[in-house]
Amino acid sequence: MIEAAYTIGAELGLAVWTEDEAGPFQTVPEPGRTWQREGEPARQPHEYIRNGTAKLMTLFEPGSGQVRVKGVASVTNAVLHTWLKETVTEILAERAVPEAAIEGEQRRATWERWQEGLSLPITLPDALPPLRMLLVMDNLTGHRSVALLLWLFARGVMVLYTPLGGCWLNMAESIQRILKRRALSGQMPRTPDQIMEWFEQTARAWNRAPTPFVWGGKRAARRQRQRQRRQHRVGGSGAVTRSPIRRPRARIQWPQPSQVTH
Question: Domain total for the chain?
Fold first, then answer.
């Protein structure tokens, strides 16, 4: 079902989003490259204070590459559910409301098709609105809250849970790796608030020129097809991109004044 959501969800007129949480991220020196002059490497102190941790809540739309994030100190159900409801409401407000042409059993069938083959399908309410969004989430206890599910169903959102050990099916894993590398690589955050700010700034910069992700299939099949389709793997899930994600340019080694000839 998750693979079908990634491949044909948009063709069916549905918004396909993925959700995940990352962290905790500590206030410690992070390994990685930094923008420094040749011969003047960045120096980090050998002593640091653990001022707490930060976490990241993420909603990612693979088809467009758009990502929405929020840094928090902890991801309790109260924090996650509140942010998820606010953000999903904003996303649905940006999309046209589908015409209520399908009623009764046909409308229910559009929902139930996304539960085919499940040993324990979700009990859907009797009254269902038109289906508008597919949301891929991890199978955590907080994600299976009855109150949250009823709220999502009432707004036309169907939840697809990744199975145990199947986090690679969630494309949000990939975008979170990219954001972490760009936000923290080679840096020395001092406070959790600084970590949150860096992640949110990085997400805004990414959204200026996002890279769409497409589903690359199962891992073995993906490796066989990537050369034929010229796909570029993205770590963390089964996502791939049609074009490589730009990396920082190589540093230019300027000649020393003594090496310059006239």
Answer: 1
The larger pLDDT score, comparing residue 105 to residue 202, is at: 202
User: Which residues are CB-neighbours of 21 under 8 A, at least 6 positions away?
Assistant: 55, 56, 57, 58, 75, 80
Question: For 26-52, how does the pLDDT look when each residue is reduced to its tens digit (9 = 90+)?
Answer: 888 777 777 777 888 777 777 777 788
Cβ burial of 82 (10 Å; 0-12, 13-18, 19+) is exposed
Domain membership of residue 232 (yes or no) is no
Q: What is the CATH number of the domain that holds 137?
A: 3.30.420.10
Q: Is the pTM of this model over 0.85?
A: no
**Gap between the Cα atoms of 20 and 34, Å rounded:** 28
DSSP tag of 142: G
User: Is 252 part of a structural domain of the chain?
Assistant: no
Give how far Cα 130 sits from Cα of 152, 194, 262, Å. 12, 41, 75
Q: How far apart are CA 96 and CA 72, in angstroms?
A: 31
Range of the domain at 174: 2-32+47-210
* 181 belongs to a structural domain: yes
Q: How many CA atoms lie within 13 A of 143 on its CB side?
A: 18
What b-and-e string marks burial along 181-214, b requiring 16 or more CB atoms within 10 Å of the CB? bbbbebbbbeebebbbebbbebbeebeeeebebb
> Could you tell me whether strands 133-137 and 157-161 are parallel, antiparallel, or unpaired per DSSP bridges?
parallel
Contact 178, 210 (CB under 8 A): no
Sign of CA dihedral 195, 198, 202, 203: positive
pLDDT in tens, 99-157: 665 676 788 888 888 988 888 888 888 888 889 999 999 988 888 889 999 999 999 99
